[in-house]
Every structure is written in C-alpha cells, then in structure tokens.
Amino acid sequence: MSPELPVAIITGASRGIGLAIAAELARRGYRLALLARDQKALEGAARRLGASAPEVKTFPCDVRDAAQVNAASEKILAWAGRVDVLVNNAGIGGFGAIHELTDEVWDDTLDTNLRGVFLCSRAVAPEMIRQRSGYIINISSLAGKNFFAGAAAYCASKWGLMGLTKCMAEDLRGYGIRVTAICPGSVHTEFSPHAGKDPKKMLQPEDVARTVGWLLDQSPTSFASEIELRPTQKP
Questions:
Q1: Per CATH, which fold does 7-229 belong to?
Q2: Which residue ranges of the chain lie beneath pLDDT 50?
C-alpha cells in the first residue's frame, strides 16, 4: 500500500459513531487504524468496511491504559509510517445523582472520556509535530457546555474535554496541527439508545461522520475550534 495515502486513527471504532466515521474516512481514501477494547468487535467492523478503505488495521486497546495506548501508537507508526488524523471518539456514559455515584462509575467515565483523549493525543502528537501537520478531532457532547441532573460524571468529563481541546489547540497550532471538538446532541446508536426519545428525530452517527469529513475538507490554514451539532427537531 502506498505510504502517500493519509492515515487516520479512530478510537471507539467498532460501532456507532466511531464506525460511521471510519466509513466516511474510508470513502475519502484514508488508511484506517481502528481502536477499541473488543478484538472481535473490531474485526467485525473491519469486515463491514470491506473494500471501501484502501487498508484497515485493527488494534485492540483500552484508551484508559497508557501502556496500551503507547504500544498501539508504536504499532500504528510501524505499519503506516505516519499519522494524519486522530479521532478521539471512545467514550462512555456514566450517570447517577452525585450522592449515589460510585467510585467505579466516576473513575471509568473520567478515565475513558477525558484521560483517554489525553493519552491518545499525547501519543501521536510527536509524530504530527515531526510532520508539521495533523488533525486531532475530539468527539465531545453538548453535555460539555450544559448541565442536567444525574450527569455529574458525564458532564464533568465532557466539560473537561472542552478545556483540554482548547489548550491542545493552542499548544499545537504552531506546528501546523489543528484540534477541534465536535459537540453533538443526542445521537441514536445501539450503544446509547436514549430511552423515551424518538430515534427518527435524533442525530444519526452519519451526521457526526459527515461533520468530521467537512472539517478535513477545510484549508490547512484554518480550523473550527468547536462545532455544535443539533437535530432540527427536539427528540
């Protein structure tokens, strides 16, 4: 496979939004490095992408674990020789009133949604700096700009992600690296069904994927620091 083709890493890529983003980037000619914790699910995602991508490789990885993230990054660079795009999509929803939250829910939510983005971004940044180019896209949420009962852990993780994104952008823009947060409202996926909402009125994974594609279409001399994505009708 030609080393000229761009390379995209997508975390949480085995289903839902991550898989939709992978399909969008496959159509755009990216070689894909798919990350998720479940090897079988990753292999299923790779089969679903089929021949639509120039090349697809799977890398089982828990983004909460620095050693696993660093090892996956090294394997990806050994395979592809470069990293053009990192989409930090892996995330979980930990919910519950603050006085009922367990340590486990709090830690898992913050470690996945915030620490995972930090670890993955830190792992690829040196290569992007060497290249003097790259794009890091963080899939955040409108919960990173709002608050509601029962969402202390989730909102804290996404508010933190917004701050991390803005600081990363300032740290890296001088090297030609762009960093953007996409903040979707409710997205209909099998992982996050949003009980009581009409799935036909919700955002679809492909809506988020097309937004990623739009960002990559922009001139390398500009970037959108954040995008809020909402359904036309409240679900």
A1: Rossmann fold (3.40.50)
A2: 1
